[in-house]
Amino acid sequence: MGALLGVLLLTVTACSGSDGAEEETEEETHAAVALTIAPEDGAEGVPTTGGLAVSAEGGTLTEVTVVGPEDQEVAGEITEEGDAWAPTEALANDAEYTVTAVGENAAGESETAIAGFTTVAAEATFSSSWNIPDGSEVGVGMELSVTFDTPIANTAEVRDAIRITTDPPVEVRGHWFGEQRVDFRPEEYWAPGTEVEVSFRIRGVEGADGVFGTLREDISFTVGRSQVTTVDAAAHTMEVVRDGENLRTVPITAGAPGTETWNGKMVITEKFRETRMDGATVGFGGEYDIPDVPHAMRLSTSGTFVHGNYWASSGTFGSANVSHGCVGLADVQGAGDPNTDAAWFYENSMIGDVVEVINSEDDVIAPDNGINGWNMDWADWGAGQ
């Protein structure tokens, strides 16, 4: 009987557990990240803006790729929280896109979702053009001017689809002149050496009801040395200053009484070694028609130039104003003498250089008469748009 009791006690003790017994562990589990792509796979007639979005629930997005026409990827951004992605540019019209989204949960387990869709066709399109060639070097006064072949109603959307970045960084604003032109500039003249990158992302942007842009292109330009020329119409002189130093003071003739030269800051936009100037094209009837004006550089759309003058007497320059509004410098017919003042100024000027006229008996030139937005206060530049 005592032996049997000892066996029972031993058995109970063995089954009661102790500090050295094996413990059970429960394996942690995570739900898969849920990815959502809008629009759904196979959707048609998707808007070019506002229709595409990707989100993640129960995890974060790690990569989103959207590929459209010609295998071109759509730029976009994932939120800081990693739970959503949205495009940063409009999509093309009537185009097929494929979205590939990758996300992962807290355990690092990855999920992939893929969807394809087609965007809405455009009822009509508008084209865009601009004034600065890709890769060019320009003067410190150059403004980027973009024009459209149809009136733009959604001015803010179109303006914001033109993205400008600079090195060194500087704020650049756009200003609309009417419904078909927007110009961009910084507050002050560009700093020499500034590198400017322009991304046109107008394609797929609705400029007016049913009318979409088509331009998607990148260009760049560089700002060269600083050259600002001051024309004193009363003193009949032109002072050429480069990088803060006076290169030369040149005798000139400006606009005669009744046809005075505009005051204000003007930018050289075109250069012609020789060109025809016909007064009938700028409202002067048959007062003049000169087929071979030498060393001509345009300052305004309305016909203001700084140019060589071979028909006035040499004593005119520096003493009298006899032109129809242009700034004239001594020159020879045929533009063949490199030693004339006009030839020198032509060779030492570039597109984008500034020519400022002071002390003329006329008004300040309108900021949209050429690339002359510098005549508008910064506070007004882009205001209300």
Automatic annotation (TrEMBL):
Pathway: Cell wall biogenesis; peptidoglycan biosynthesis. The active site is at 307 (proton donor/acceptor), 326 (nucleophile). Keywords: Acyltransferase, Cell shape, Cell wall biogenesis/degradation, Peptidoglycan synthesis, Transferase. It comes from Streptomyces chisholmiae. The keyword Cell wall biogenesis/degradation applies. This is Ig-like domain-containing protein. InterPro entries: Big_10, LD-transpeptidase, LD_TPept_cat_dom, Transpep_catalytic_dom. The keyword Lipid metabolism does not apply. It comes from the Bacteria. Residues 227-358 form the L,D-TPase catalytic domain. PANTHER family: L,D-TRANSPEPTIDASE, L,D-TRANSPEPTIDASE YCIB-RELATED.
